[in-house]
Specification:
Cofactor: heme
Oligomer: single chain
Catalytic activity: 2 H2O2 = O2 + 2 H2O
Structural class: alpha+beta
Family: Belongs to the catalase family. HPII subfamily.
InterPro entries: Catalase (IPR018028), Catalase_AS (IPR024708), Catalase_clade2 (IPR024712), Catalase_clade2_helical (IPR043156), Catalase_core (IPR011614), Catalase_haem_BS (IPR002226), Catalase_immune_responsive (IPR010582), Catalase_large_C (IPR041399)
Number of strands: 17
CATH architecture of the largest domain: Beta Barrel
Radius of gyration: 28 Å
GO cellular component, one term: cytosol
Length: about 675
């Protein structure tokens, strides 16, 4: 059984290995396998003459280069991905016949792509935006794609409005400005005139839209799906990914600065975590509603602008995903992977959510042009780990060599194969839902409540989170040029919370709304990030030191930090070796020019006996900025003087090494808190 499990786990890896090629140590050839003797000079008529048309090597090289790019995704263009595996905690056969959700003894290979929604491939990682969280499970029954976001709701309720939404939030067509931002007129004009977006906007304006890391954000399937068991009984389900590091975010000021300092901040974070063996882990959870309770909720469970509050419908944790391998080639894997919510396995089915129904068409359609035709399932990263047999033939990029005469169903020459199989033999069968009604372009009246859950979200925030939301609204609407759009937007969000709307109106210079506001008082603690998991694991610590630092004691502290699974990077006046007392040498990873405080979760300042004026100035600025972002700060030895200069000593989250033996534990404890919001910034 152990060998079977290992085979299962490695099936996708082995399949991808078959396609891998290394050029290292090999002779240069053309694409036809012809070895070449020259690759620096094109063939010419004399050493100063024109290039000759017969130079097939030059033509092949340039032609391939000219066609290297494929169209980027219209949305989710900026992405980063990794391989991993999924293991089930408990048998879910009560709810579904999906085999990968029944067998706890196997690990299912997965490929996960994280992405921003709005920006182009070249945009920055840390912009305010929703994030994609798409997972491809390579199961023994075929590929299953859970195409999720880090926000559990969406802007619209019906897919027919999706082109309008995307046109509105993309750069404005007259000047293609702004990139990767919704702080402009067309987006907020859409919002004010499509008020079903209210709930999503509250999430987008919150800290959820600027995650600290891909490793520290939730994933939500957004839509209501069905689980169907072997007896044909169906359940409504929503899927959740819960990060084991908790849900944490950047500050808006950090996000702005990181866009310039390290536009690949999230990519670097994921890549380095996996390379360093600090594998990201996410637990899979499900919310389940019995079919007979579909109409018993205060909201329509098929409405993609609504959550199922976790206090009412708890999330049942059923498995864990571990990301443990980076890609070998970004283009071949991350850029060519094709997800589709219609890629399901027996036991998982759809509902009549009108947004989901549109996605079931759109995803296949968009891949046809991106990936050059209907055979994108044959690209190695998309290829299932089980064989596929059907009568589909030919087309662009066909790699399968089908043998035999027959390519049609109902035949005698091949014994009527390939042919369908019964559900008992693994055949997919759609859930037999009774459907009746008149053909009509309309929406159920149960979809008309656009504000109660937006207010629920606001009510559930802490004062700090509410301040961040208010600031985000003020920034976004402050960038809008149309006074009419500003006023409409403020009036709209008075239906969510009157105090919020009045504050925004004052800041952006429009009339305060006259609405009576919302009378919703309910809260959902699960919505606040202050109720997440807090732990120091894998957090980044900037260590500032100079020549002459206390060698033995600093070396002891750094060992304690690393033993606590923290990532330590040393910053000094110059990169390379820094000499401390007792001949202790530490290697500086960065200078103040290559590292800024926004790249770290905390700061440990040591200093040393030999510093320059510039070092002192840069160090003061570094810890001052970290302090203003509410981060933990530790200090020992000569570094303690910087706390006095900046008046930080005695403030929450500032840890001073009175005794070096007690310092690491206290500092690590502070790092686990991440931010100290009770700190007064002066």
């Amino acid at each position: 059984m152990t060998n079977e499990r290992n085979l299962d786990k490695n099936k996708k890896k082995d399949q991808l290995d078959d396609y891998k090629v290394t050029d290292q140590g090999k002779a240069l050839t053309t694409n036809q396998g012809l070895k070449m003797s020259e690759d620096e000079f094109s063939l010419k008529a004399g050493d100063r003459g024109p290039t000759l048309m017969e130079d097939f090597h030059f033509r092949e090289k340039l032609t391939h280069f000219d066609h290297e790019r494929i169209p980027e995704r219209v949305v989710h263009a900026r992405g980063f991905a990794a391989h991993g595996d999924f293991e089930l905690y408990e048998n879910m056969s009560k709810y579904t016949r999906a085999k990968f959700l029944q067998n706890t003894s196997i690990k299912t290979p997965v490929f996960v792509r994280f992405s921003t929604v709005n920006g182009s491939r070249g945009s920055a990682d840390t912009v305010r935006d929703a994030r994609g969280f798409a997972t491809k499970f390579f199961t023994e029954e075929g590929n299953y794609d859970l195409v999720a976001n880090n926000i559990p709701v969406f802007f619209i309720q019906d897919a027919i409005k999706f082109p309008d939404l995307v046109h509105a939030f993309k750069p404005e067509p007259d000047n293609d400005i702004p990139q990767a931002s919704t702080a402009h007129d067309t987006f907020w004009d859409f919002v004010a005139n499509n008020q079903e977006s209210a709930h999503m906007i509250m999430w987008i304006m919150s800290d959820r839209a600027i995650p600290r890391s891909f490793r520290m954000m939730e994933g939500f399937g957004v839509h209501t799906f069905r689980l169907v068991n072997a007896q044909g009984k169906a359940y409504f389900v929503k899927f959740h990914w819960k990060p084991k590091l908790g849900v944490h975010s950047l500050l808006w000021d950090e996000s702005h600065k990181l866009t310039g300092i390290d536009p690949d901040f999230h990519r670097n974070d994921l890549w380095n975590a996996i390379n360093n063996g600090k594998y990201p882990e996410f637990e899979l959870g499900v919310q389940i509603i019995n079919e007979e309770d579909e109409l018993n909720m205060e909201f329509d469970i098929l409405d993609a602008t609504k959550i199922w509050p976790e206090e009412i419908i708890p999330v049942k944790i059923i498995g864990k995903m571990t990301l443990n391998k980076n890609v070998d080639n970004f283009f071949a894997e991350t850029e060519q992977v094709a997800f589709h919510p219609g890629n399901v396995v027996p036991g998982i089915d759809f509902t009549n959510d009108p947004l989901l129904q549109g996605r079931l068409f759109s995803y296949t359609d968009t891949q046809l042009i991106r990936l050059g035709g209907p055979n994108f399932h044959e690209i190695p990263i998309n290829r299932p780990v089980v064989p596929f047999h059907n009568n589909q033939r030919e087309g662009y990029r066909r790699q399968t060599i089908n043998v035999g005469k027959v390519s049609y169903h109902r035949n005698s020459l091949a014994g009527n194969t390939p042919g369908p199989v019964s559900p008992s033999e693994g055949g997919y069968e759609h859930y037999q839902e009774k459907v009746e009604g008149r053909k009509i372009r309309a929406r159920s009246s149960s979809f008309t409540d656009h504000f109660s859950q937006a207010t629920l979200f606001w009510n559930s925030m802490t004062p700090v989170e509410k301040m961040h939301i208010t600031d985000a609204f003020s920034f976004e609407l402050g960038k809008v040029k149309s006074e009419s759009v500003k006023q409409q937007s403020v009036n709209m969000f008075a239906n969510v919370n009157l105090e919020l709307a009045v504050t925004i109106a004052k800041r952006i210079g429009v009339n305060p709304p006259t609405s009576e506001g919302s009378d919703v008082t309910a809260t959902s603690p699960a919505l606040s990030q202050q109720n997440t998991i807090f732990k120091p694991d894998t957090r980044k610590v900037a260590v500032i030191l100079a020549k002459g630092f206390n060698g033995p004691e600093v070396k002891y502290v750094l060992k304690q930090l690393k033993d606590a699974d923290l990532t330590v990077e040393i910053i000094s006046e110059n990169q390379g070796n820094v000499l401390g007392t007792n001949d202790v040498i530490l290697k500086a990873d960065h200078t103040f020019q290559t590292a800024k405080s926004v790249m770290y979760d905390s700061v440990y300042i040591v200093n040393g006996s030999q510093t320059s004026k510039r070092f002192n100035k840069d160090a003061v600025y570094f810890i001052d900025e970290a302090f203003s972002h509410y981060k933990p700060i530790g200090a020992s030895h000569e570094g303690i003087q910087y706390l006095t200069v900046n008046h930080f000593d005695g403030k929450p989250g500032v840890v001073v090494a009175d005794e070096i033996s007690n310092f690491p534990e206290a500092f690590i404890y502070a790092i686990g808190h991440h931010r100290f919001w009770n700190r007064k910034i002066v």
